[in-house]
Every structure is written in C-alpha cells, then in structure tokens.
Amino acid sequence: MADAEARPRRDFWDKAEIVLQPVGGLLTALAVAILGFWTSSYLREREARESVLRERMQTSETNARLYSELTSKREESESALRKDMFTSIINSFLAGGPQTLEQKVLNLELLVYNFHESLNLKPLFLHIERETRKSADRDAYLARLNRVAEEVTKKQMLIIEEGGASFDLAANLKDLTFEGGDSFAARDMELGGIERNFRVELLGADPASQQVQLRVTVRGGRSGAAETTATEFWVGYFDFPMIDNVRLPDDQRLAVVLNNYDAANARADLTLVYFPGKYAGLREKPYYDEVLAKLLEANRSFGTGAAPAATPSPTRTR
User: Fold this and answer.
1) Quick one: which of 187, 233, 236, 238 has its CA closest to 214?
2) Could you give the CA distance from residue 110 to residue 297 in angstroms, rounded to a whole number?
C-alpha cells in the first residue's frame, strides 16, 4: 500500500506523452517517406521535361539546318539559272548575228523583267527604240517598249515609296514652268530624322525622245548641317529610280520619274522621290565611310558617345 502511495500519479499530459511518443516517430518516418517520394517524383518530372525540351531543341535545330540547306541550294540553283539566262540573252545582243526586231524586243523584255534591279538598261532601250522607228510596225513596238518601262517603274516605285517620301510635279514644257506658273517647285521632306529641301527647275524638253531636262538643288542635312547639292540631268521613260538616282550624304537617294509626256499639249507629269540607299539597285553599294558612320551611330545609341564619320559628296549613279 505504501509503494502505491509512493509512486507519483500520472496526469493527462504524462499519459498523452506515453501515447504520442511512438506516434511521433511514426509521423516522422511517414513525413520523411512522403518527402522522399515527392522529391523523387519532382526530379523525375524535371528530367522528363528537360528531355522533352532537348528533343524539341534538337528537332528545331535539325529543321533549321535542313531549311537553311534547302534555301541555300535553291538560291544557288536560281543564281545559276539567272546567270545562264543573262549570258544567253546578253550574248544575243553582243554577238551581232541576224535577229528580227521581234526577237530583240522579246530579249529586252526578258532582261528587264528579270534584271531591272541590277542593270542599267536605258542604253539598250534607246538602241532598240531607234531600230523600231525604222520598222513598219513602229507604233506597236514603241508602245510595247513604253509599256514595259512603265510596269518596271511602277514596281520600283511601290518598293521605294514604302520607305521614302515623294511629291508630284506637273510641268508646262512650252514656257518651262510648273503648275501655277512658277519657274521652280520646292518641297521640304524628312527621312530618317534628316530634313532636306528639294528645289526643281525645268531647263529644257526634247519631244522627239520624250525627255525633260531638270536641275535639282538639295539643301539641309543631319542636325541642320548646311549641305547644298545641285545636279542637272535628263529624265525619260527609261530612267528607273532604283538604278538612275542621285546619291546624297547619309546613304540616301534622290530620283525623278517621268510618269507621262504629252507632246501634243507640251505637258509632263513627274514624281520626285527621296528614299534610303537600301532601296537602291543591287549594283549600288554604300561607301565604306557610310557603313562606318552607321556602325558608329549604332554604338552611340548604346552610350559609347562615338562621333559619326564624314559622308561622301553626292553623285548621280547610272
């Protein structure tokens, strides 16, 4: 009896400790098992995602390489075809063998439609035009030549005007004035952050060849620079803007297009277009200092503070 009284009485918390102690160990083991299972599942899913991602990247790289190879082969075959076509057509003119006027006009059409962005074909147009004037079908062949030139000019203007600026001019060829009786036409145009003033004057007209002689004066430049350029030239139906243009500083171009020559009423419709050099013909490449100026300008945009290089004097390209 005395031993029973000597033992301490266990309260509720003592009894709870006895019961929960093994339960706590069980819960700990269960938590470790769950954590291990979740961790292994996460690692397996991550590995699976990375495996799928690697497969997709490999597939994408394979497809890109295949596309690049196919594109390269296609360009090579097209270049070879264009080279053979050009050689065959140009040899037909240079060989000087017997050719009918129909064959010459057809060869010119093939050259124009396929190489109008690469070659200045005005001399060939004028040569065949002189021959057509001796033909009994003179009017039909002249209309055909003018139609080809008009189509090519429209194609080039659609491309150029997407990135450039332009304005139209109505000229009175009798007294060499523009619409309204002014002796000149002027317009301010902005392109690539550079604003220039264009002044156009009529110097003469040739009804026989349907050409107009112009003087174009360009003023202004980057950051208000006092740049002045004056150039004189003849423009006709066979002057295509991508090829026959005036080179301006900062890799920009100026061209004038003859839209219509009405000899009976002594009138002509012209369009002056101001556009970036990247739209010029394939044979037109930027000067090295223009490329350097662009690189320096790009570096300056990243905070390098480099100054742009000098640009060359404007010239008219043909």
Assistant:
1) 233
2) 41
- Phi-psi region at 112: left, alpha or beta (left = phi > 0; alpha = psi -120 to 50): alpha
Q: What is the CATH number of domain 165-317?
A: 2.60.98
pLDDT by residue (tens digit) across 165-216? Answer: 999 999 999 999 998 889 999 999 999 888 999 999 999 999 988 999 999 9
Specify the 3-state DSSP secondary structure of 102.
helix
* CB burial readout 282-313, b (16+ within 10 A) else e: eebebeeebeebeebeeeeeeeeeeebbebee
User: Are the C-beta atoms of 221 and 261 separated by less than 8 Å?
Assistant: no
When pLDDT is averaged across residues 121-131 and rounded to a whole number, the result is 89
177 has which bridge partners? 172
For the chain, the domains span 73-146, 165-317
Residue spans of alpha helices (H) in the chain: 2-6, 12-94, 101-115, 122-132, 138-163, 288-301
Question: Which phi and psi (to 5°) does residue 119 adopt?
Answer: -120, 150
35 HSE (CA, 13 A, CB side): 6
Euclidean distance between CA atoms 91 and 49, whole angstroms: 62
